[in-house]
Design brief:
single chain; about 325 residues; alpha/beta; DNA polymerase, domain 1; eight-stranded mixed sheet; 14 helices; about 15% strand; disordered N terminus
């Protein structure tokens, strides 16, 4: 996720300095930016001397707008219009077997949020879309055709919204919905929200629908496994998340892959001996945005950065856990 500068210059990614410090890119290295967006991380990695960056993004607008940076990179940037969970095959198709760093900036980008026509935000009215890849089922399709129970489950599990049943019932009663403004009003009315209240209740529901439509948590799990497979020994993984659902996935993955599993007891025998050798080791404690960055970009308030280093152990098989 990134923020536009006051001058309208290219977006500045959240925790940029911290991400680059964690990756420590250097001359001759090959890196993957799994979430290219406006190219902020990619640009910084190239400036540090990396020989090549493979930048992934499933959003065709991001790829199109990145062509200028690719053209000016002297052949050091390759844009890959693909989900980052497929980076292993996409890199293999381009003759790349291993890389020195992988960066993942999870969630929706400021470019997407700030464009009403993409339908990700209720801050400005737009069509109910929310599709990162601009294909497949839209938010309007889902909300206007899915059973009430399914809508409630999505809002509860991905938005952690305690009033999910009430909101889902109101959505079904208000069908058909076509605009973000309409949906936001339906949600506010359903929960009895007033303008003086602190947090707009539409936030959780919009987040939930977006995560569901774009399969974001499944994509994150696949992206972490793909990073494990493509990182060379000593390579670094930097992941920035923006809410607890994402961070829990990353934390659990790195905890397992680093061999940090609970000791056994007489009720639950130790499982560590049955787990593969650790494929990652922690580099530092989780990092949050500082006061200066928060003043520039309030969206960074919930950001968490986790960095880990790849060991020489083989990648775990998919689905294997401690």
């Amino acid at each position: 996720m990134s923020v536009p500068t006051a001058s309208g210059a290219p977006h500045i990614p959240v925790l940029l300095a911290e991400v680059i410090a964690g990756l420590t890119p250097s001359a001759g290295e090959t890196h993957v930016d799994g979430t290219f967006g406006a190219g902020g991380y990619t640009r910084a990695i190239l400036q540090k001397g990396a020989a090549h960056v493979y930048a992934f993004d499933r959003d065709p607008q991001a790829i199109e707008e990145g062509e200028a940076l690719a053209a000016s990179s002297g052949g050091r940037l390759t844009l890959v219009p693909e989900r980052f969970s497929r980076m292993r095959q996409a890199l293999a198709d381009r003759g790349v077997e291993a890389v020195d760093g992988v960066t993942l900036d999870i969630g929706v980008s400021s470019m997407q949020l700030d464009r009403p026509e993409r339908g990700f935000s209720f801050q400005a009215d737009g069509p109910l879309d929310m599709r990162m890849a601009s294909e497949g089922e839209s938010a309007a399709d889902f909300l206007n055709h899915a059973p009430e129970e399914d809508i409630a489950d999505v809002i509860y599990h991905y938005g952690e919204e305690p009033k999910s049943r009430r909101i889902a019932r109101a959505i079904v009663a208000a069908r058909p919905l076509t605009r973000t403004g309409e949906l936001a009003e339906v949600i506010r009315k359903a929960v009895g929200w007033k303008p003086h209240m602190k947090k707009d209740p539409a936030t959780r529901t919009f987040q939930a629908i977006r995560i569901h439509l774009n399969e974001e948590l499944q994509e994150l799990e696949g992206g972490l496994e793909a990073a494990e497979q493509v990182l060379a020994p000593g390579g670094r993984l930097a992941v920035v998340t923006f809410h607890s659902l994402e961070d829990r996935v990353v934390k659990r993955f790195l905890k397992e892959r680093s061999g940090d599993v609970p000791a056994g007891s007489r009720h639950l025998p130790a499982q560590a001996s049955r787990a593969p050798a650790p494929s990652f080791e922690a580099v530092a404690k989780p990092v949050r945005a500082g006061e200066h960055e928060l003043n520039l970009n309030p969206r960074a308030r919930s950001a968490t950065l986790r960095v880990a280093r790849r060991t020489s152990a083989s990648a775990w098989k998919e689905g294997v856990s401690a």
